[in-house]
Design goal:
Layout (H helix, E strand, L loop, with lengths): L1 H19 L8 E3 L10 H11 L4 E7 L14 E7 L7 E4 L14 H6 L9 H16 L1 H6 L1 E6 L8 E11 L5 E8 L5 E9 L38 E5 L1 H11 L13 H15 L6 E9 L7 E15 L2 E12 L2 E13 L6
Amino acid sequence: MPDATASLERVHRCNKQVRGRGRAGGFKVFNCSSVKFGTSNLRFYAILEQTCGATGFALYPKLEPKPKAPDRGKLRRNYYMLYVMGTHIPEYRIRASVDSSDSTNLLHHDEHARKYGFSSGLVSGIFIYSYMSRSLIEFLGKDWLERGSTEVRFMHPTYDGDEIRVTGCLTSVTKEGTLCIDYQGINNHGVACAAGMAKLPVCPQTPEPRACDYEAGRRKMHRPITLETLKVGEELAPIKSPFTWNIHWEYCQKAIRDHHPLYRQVMHPGWLLSQANLILAANYSLPPWIHASSAVQNYHALSDEGEVETRGRIENKYEEKGAHYIVLDLAVFSQDRCLSVIHHTANFRIAPEAA
């Protein structure tokens, strides 16, 4: 046990140093290959809890890359990622901007937004989601893009030039080891514009959805939308979008200004969620509308150029305080692999007091 104790003390010390620097605190990779996990090692967990000074923690197994020839005979060492309950995710600040080139929603333009009582054009929910995902990537890394999930609600208008501050913390760890993070985007007036919960399980979600689970609708595109004409369960006409590194560079570097090095290798989650807006706008002739919420379950992180197809159906429709909502059950595919499943809620008839 002295090796285990020494390792844990080093981890605790490193965590304190990282948090003190205001960087991605709360986790650290450390070598635990000398420790055997099992019912006979309760003392190890007691040491871990005592050393961390927390009521909850999670150890995520990590393996070194598989040895290449001529090192085939070498064993891979076991590593574990330590997450401690109550740890704050890295804070992220950015000046929000309106995508004036987005023609799918007139509410992003000043003249249309003012007709509904807003002071100017609204920053899209996709952009807010993109900003908020930065803190998740800093905290959870690529694993979240491959098996993590999140539910985000957009609660207050965000305008061009508002400073968005993303904060949150690890609030719980389930018995199965799933990390649960509450996080929010707060503007420069201290008002929460959006809030969500993100999760990262130990293992990928199964079974993985298939394209045949989402049949292609055959109704005409850009059809009128009303609560009366919407039919729950009706399939949508699928859409296809090209994914190239040039398109991705434009989105990351110019649109949302996210320069994280990970996005030189994989698709940004915000670009992926934007496909939900595109399939909605392709199927219906929309008046100015509001992105109300999205629930996303990730399955794969796309790292190759190609065609991305979005399929889906109407999951629900409802009226609330004079506003009309549509809920879509969507799945995004690339080369027969499901990248994510999205439950996308939009307010397509804005209530007079929405602003």
